[in-house]
Amino acid sequence: MYRNYDIENSVHSQLTILKIGFFQKILGFNRDVPWPVHWTSSVSRCDNIMPGTRTPGLGKGCHIDGRNGIKIGKNVWIGPHVKIISMNHNVNNYHYYIKAGPIIIGDNCWLGASVIILPEVELGEHTVVAAGAIVTKSFPDGNQVIGGNPAKVIKRLDEYE
User: Which long-range contacts (CB under 8 A, 24 or more apart) does 9-13 make?
Assistant: First the structure.
């Protein structure tokens, strides 16, 4: 049903993928998204999203807004209730949106539960974002743990194995 995505091959995982496929392809939740998405998650403008090798939105309750573009690297793990929001409102007229550059998430990143990534953010390779962090600016260096509100570097990491 879904090809070229890194999905665990256990019996439980395969049953979950069948259930997700039922909600997505039969009942129509996120039907236009070409990768598996949990039925409680929402993905907008999937045509502007480069999903990498894993499946953004597979966790419960995610919101992924690709209107300004999102580029997700290889082996990026995205926890439940993560929000990746690529477009913002004009603060002088809420009916208009601000065009901006895409969100870029490097290879081997991990976004913990309830992380929020805001427009034009770039995360370098092997960046771990702590649960509940709100990322308002870029962290292009990589090999780091970031967290907090607003996010800041908490710890440096060795190269990803």
Answer: none
pLDDT in tens, 92-110: 999 999 999 999 999 999 9
In angstroms, rounded to a whole number, what is the distance separating the alpha carbons of residues 17 and 24? 10
Among candidate residues 38, 63, 81, 89, the one labeled active-site is 89
pTM of the full structure: 0.84
Give the C-alpha distances (Å, rounded to integers) separating 100 from 86, 151, 153.
8, 20, 24
Domains of the chain (ranges; CATH) run 37-156 (2.160.10.10)
- Indicate if 89 belongs to the active site: yes
